[in-house]
Amino acid sequence: MFQSQQFDLLLYQLMISDEDFGLLDNMAASVTTYLVIFVQFGHPLAPRN
Description:
By secondary structure, this protein is an all-alpha fold. It is built from two helices and no strands.
């Protein structure tokens, strides 16, 4: 399963290290898009069984 605690830590590190909140918003949108794909199709890098 997805480890949300690590994900929260990653977002926190991005927020405290990145002063360009426009970039942060774009990254958050990309992450959200990726999570939608992740939920619907599974991890794209995972081997197909």
